[in-house]
Write a structure and sequence with these properties.
CATH topology: Ybab, Chain: A
Largest sheet: 3 strands, antiparallel
Helix content: 40-55%
Order of helices and strands: HEEEH
Number of strands: 3
Shape: rod-shaped
Strand order of the largest sheet: 1-2-3
CATH class: Alpha Beta
Structural class: alpha+beta
CATH architecture: 2-Layer Sandwich
Strand content: 15-25%
Radius of gyration: 19 Å
Number of domains: 1
Distance between the termini: 31 Å
Length: 109
């Protein structure tokens, strides 16, 4: 019974750590770039957009389609970075129990 009790304690600690890590993710900001930094998108750790910065030289009516593509590229770059940071934080929060999930179940990241 001691093993089950200890496992339950670890599971509760992991749950608390995961909740704290999710709170911290909202505070993290990641910048995705395209066109060598001429278009930048900032997302928080939960993937929510916080800011968009565009080099004024792209504000030409004939270049709208190019600018739209660059914004999409910057958002995708930021999202990849957010996923990497969030995954690492959640894995760190899960601690030793991260590898003990039953088949088919995974942590929320």
């Amino acid at each position: 019974m001691k093993d089950i009790s200890g496992l339950m304690k670890q599971a509760k600690e992991m749950q608390e750590n995961l909740a704290k890590a999710q709170e911290k993710l909202a505070e993290i900001e990641v910048v995705g770039e395209s066109a060598g930094g001429m278009v930048c998108v900032t997302l928080n750790g939960k993937g929510q957009a916080k800011a968009v910065k565009i080099e004024p030289t792209f504000l030409v009516p004939s270049e709208v389609e190019v600018l739209e593509d660059l914004i999409v590229a910057a958002v995708n770059d930021a999202k990849r970075k957010v996923d990497r940071v969030a995954g690492q934080q959640m894995a760190d929060a899960a601690g030793p129990l991260a590898g003990m999930m039953p088949p088919g179940m995974k942590l929320p990241f």
